[in-house]
Design brief:
This protein is α/β, with parallel strands linked by helices and 352 residues long. It contains twelve helices and eleven strands. A six-stranded mixed sheet has the order 7-6-8-5-9-11, sandwiched between helices. The protein has a five-stranded mixed sheet with strand order 2-1-3-10-4, sandwiched between helices. Helix 4 packs across helix 12. The chain is globular. The N and C termini lie far apart (87 Å). Bound molecules: (2S)-2-hydroxybutanedioic acid (LMR).
Length: 352
C-alpha cells in the first residue's frame, strides 16, 4: 500500500472517530415548540415524550419543550422547523395546507368523523401513514398523530341554529375548508395565529371562534366569550413532525429509542385527550362566565345539513378519493360497532 493511500486511510479513520466522538460527547438537543398552554393534551404529551426520550437515551438527548408560542407562533414555527432552528413540532392538522399539502385539510371537513373510532382508523391506519409520508418532500418526517378533540363554537351571542352564525366574525386557523365552513354558515372568517385569539376576542376584533374546549379553557377564552355551543362540528388534532435532515442524521440507536418514546407518548396523548376536554367543559361551566348551549337532535341535523355542502365543494381541493376513503372508514367503524353490539347482545342472551 502506498504511503499516500495509508495516509488517506488514517485520515478517514480519524475523521470517523472525530465524528463519532462528536455524537458521543455532545448532547443532542431537540427543541420542541408548540403554541398551546402547558395543561392541554398536546403539551402534556410533549412533556411525556421529553421524559421518556431523556430517560431512554440516558441523557444523550435533551428535549427542550417551548409551550404557548413562547418561541414561535403558528406560521413561524413551521418555517423554523424547515430551516432547522427547531427540531420538533406538533401543529394542528389545519396548518399543513400552507406547506402545499392540501390533503391534510380532510381533517377540517365538518362532520366527516362521526366518532373517534373512525378518526383512529384514519390516523392510525394506512390513510394516516400515507399523509405523513407526503411531508418528506417538504424536508419533514411525520412521526405520529396526536389527538385533541372535536371543535365547539363560541361567541358573545347565543348560537343554537346555523342561522345564528350569520354575520359573526369568527377566528379560524389557516385552512380553506374552515374558511368555507364559516362562509357556508353566513359567518365572516378571519385567520389569526393561535397566540392572538384571546386578545382578538377581548378587543372585539372577532366575535367568536371554534376550538376543542381544552384550548378554549386553557387560553381563558371563556372569560371573553359569553356562549359556548356544543356543535362538535369538526375535528382538531396534531401531526408530530421533525426536521428530516436532523432525524436522518441521528445515530440509529438514538433514533430507535426516540421512536419508541414517541409511540408511548402517542398512546398517552390519545388516552388523555377526551378526559382533558371533559374536564375543561366542567371547568367552563363551573366558572359561571360562559353559558354552555347543548343541541337537540333536531338542531344537530340542521347543522349537518348546513355544512354538508362543504364536503362536496372541497373534494376537488382535498382529493375526492381521500374523502371517499374517510367515509369508507366511517362505514367500517359503524359496522364494527354494530357487530360488537350484536356480539354483546348474544353473550347477554346466553348469560341469562
Ligand atoms: C388553533 O390554532 O386553534 C389550534 O391549532 C391550536 C393548537 O395547537 O391546538
Amino acid at each position: 500500500m502506498s504511503i499516500s493511500r495509508t495516509l488517506l486511510r488514517c485520515l478517514s479513520v480519524l475523521l470517523l472517530l472525530t465524528c463519532c466522538h462528536a455524537w458521543g460527547q455532545s448532547t443532542i438537543v431537540i427543541k420542541f415548540s408548540h403554541v398551546v398552554a402547558n395543561d392541554t393534551p398536546k403539551a402534556k404529551a410533549a412533556l411525556r415524550f421529553k421524559a421518556l426520550a431523556e430517560a431512554a437515551t440516558k441523557g444523550r438527548v435533551r428535549v427542550e419543550v417551548y409551550p404557548n408560542s413562547s418561541l414561535y407562533k403558528d406560521k413561524e414555527e413551521l418555517e423554523a422547523l424547515q430551516l432547522g432552528a427547531v427540531q420538533m413540532l406538533a401543529p394542528s392538522l389545519a396548518k399543513f395546507a400552507p406547506l402545499g399539502i392540501k390533503e391534510f385539510e380532510v381533517f377540517d371537513v365538518p362532520y366527516i368523523f362521526p366518532d373517534k373510532a373512525t378518526l383512529y382508523r384514519v390516523t392510525q391506519g394506512p390513510v394516516g401513514q400515507n399523509l405523513l409520508q407526503k411531508l418528506e418532500t417538504k424536508g419533514i418526517v411525520g412521526l405520529a398523530f396526536w389527538d385533541n378533540g372535536f371543535k365547539q363554537m363560541s361567541s358573545n351571542k347565543p348560537i343554537r341554529v346555523p342561522s345564528d352564525m350569520r354575520g359573526q366574525k369568527m377566528r379560524i386557523q389557516p385552512s380553506k375548508v374552515i374558511d368555507l365552513q364559516m362562509r357556508a354558515l353566513g359567518a365572516v372568517p378571519m385567520s389569526l395565529a393561535f397566540s392572538e385569539v384571546f386578545q382578538a376576542l377581548k378587543t372585539g376584533l372577532v366575535d367568536g371562534t371554534e376550538n376543542p374546549i381544552s384550548n378554549l379553557y386553557t387560553q381563558h377564552m371563556h372569560e371573553v366569550q359569553k356562549y359556548l355551543t356544543l356543535t362538535n362540528h369538526a375535528y382538531l388534532g396534531y401531526a408530530v413532525i421533525v426536521n428530516k435532515k436532523f432525524w436522518d442524521d441521528l445515530p440509529g440507536d438514538i433514533r430507535d429509542e426516540l421512536e419508541t418514546a414517541m409511540k408511548s407518548a402517542t398512546i398517552y396523548a390519545n388516552t388523555i385527550a377526551e378526559q382533558e376536554n371533559e374536564a375543561a367543559l366542567v371547568a367552563v361551566r363551573r366558572s359561571g362566565k360562559t353559558l354552555v348551549v347543548s343541541l337537540s337532535a333536531k338542531d344537530l341535523l340542521a347543522w349537518k345539513a348546513a355544512l354538508l355542502p362543504v364536503q362536496k365543494n372541497m373534494a376537488g381541493r382535498i382529493s375526492a378519493d381521500l374523502i371517499a376513503r374517510v367515509n369508507l372508514e366511517a362505514a367500517l367503524a359503524e359496522k364494527n360497532e354494530s357487530a360488537a353490539c350484536c356480539g354483546a347482545a348474544i353473550i347477554a342472551f346466553f348469560d341469562r
